[in-house]
Amino acid sequence: MATTPSNMLALGTKAPYFELENPLTENLENLEELKGKKGTLVVFMSNHCPFVHHVIDKLVELHEDYQEQGIQVIGINANDMEQSPEDSPEKMLDFIKERNITFPYLYDESQAIAKAYQAACTPDFYLFDDKMDLIYRGQMDESRPGNHKEVTGEDLIIAFENLLAEQPQEEFQIPSIGCGIKWK
After folding, report:
1. Distance CA 72, CA 40 (A)
2. How many CA atoms, within 13 angstroms, populate the side-chain half-sphere of residue 63?
3. What is the rounded average pLDDT for all residues in the chain?
4. Rg of the chain in Å (alpha carbons)
5. What's the burial of 90, exposed, middle or buried (CB within 10 Å: 0-12/13-18/19+)?
6. What is the model's pLDDT at position 3?
7. Residue 37 burial by CB count (10 A; 0-12/13-18/19+): exposed, middle or buried?
8. In whole angstroms, what separates CA 14 from the centre of its chain?
9. b/e code 140-164 from CB counts within 10 Å (16+ = b)
10. Which of 28, 55, 68, 169 has the highest CB neighbour number within 10 Å of its CB?
11. Are the CB atoms for 77 and 124 separated by under 8 Å?
12. What pLDDT is recorded for position 1?
C-alpha cells in the first residue's frame, strides 16, 4: 500500500474559504455556514482509502463527542472520480450511510479546495480555531492499517482539548499519512 504524508500547511494560515456540493443534501454548503463556534476540523478523506477506513469510526465518534463543545468536523473528498470511480458523489452517499457519518461530507470536484489547503493524502487533518487560523495539522494518532496500534484519536483529542482550554498546541506535530489524493 503506497503512502503519502501530509504537506503540513503553515500554522497560522487562514482557512481557505470553500463552497462545495454536499451529495447528501444536493446543496452547496460553505465554510462560513458550517464552521464550529470554537473550532473547525477540515478532513480530506475518501470512500475507498484503507487509511480512512481505519480511522473513520473514531472520527465519527470524535465529531459526536466534540460537536456540542463547539468543534465542527467537515469532510472533503477531492479525488478525481475518473481515476477513482469509487469516490463519486453517489458512492459518497453509500459511505455516509455505511459508516454512520454525521458530519458534512462534501465533494471538491475541481480539486481547487484541496490545492488551496495543500492537501496531499487521505486522511489529511486541519484544525482551525474560532478565528479560522490553523492551529493543528497532522496525524489523528499513531495507528495505521497493519501496525497493530489502537485507533485512539489521541493527537486530535489533545489538539481539541488544548483549543477548548485555550492552551497552546503541541509544537511538534506529526504529519498524517494516507493514500495520495487522486489528482486530475
Report:
1. 5
2. 21
3. 96
4. 15
5. exposed
6. 87
7. exposed
8. 16
9. bbebbbeeeeebebebbbebbebbe
10. 55
11. no
12. 54
Q: In whole angstroms, how far apart are CA 101 and each of 17, 75, 98, 109, 128?
A: 23, 10, 8, 20, 21
Could you tell me what percent of the chain has a pLDDT over 90? Answer: 98
pLDDT digits (tens, 9 = 90+) for 22-72: 999 999 999 999 999 999 999 999 999 999 999 999 999 999 999 999 999
HEC readout, 126-156: EEEECCCEEEEEECCCCCCCCCCCCCCCHHH
* C-alpha distance from residue 97 to each of 36, 40, 72 (Å): 23, 23, 19
Could you tell me the CA-to-CA distances from 141 to 15, 133, 145, 149 in Å, in that order? 22, 22, 12, 9
pLDDT more than 70, % of the chain: 99
Half-sphere exposure of residue 133, counting CA atoms within 13 Å on the CB side? Answer: 6
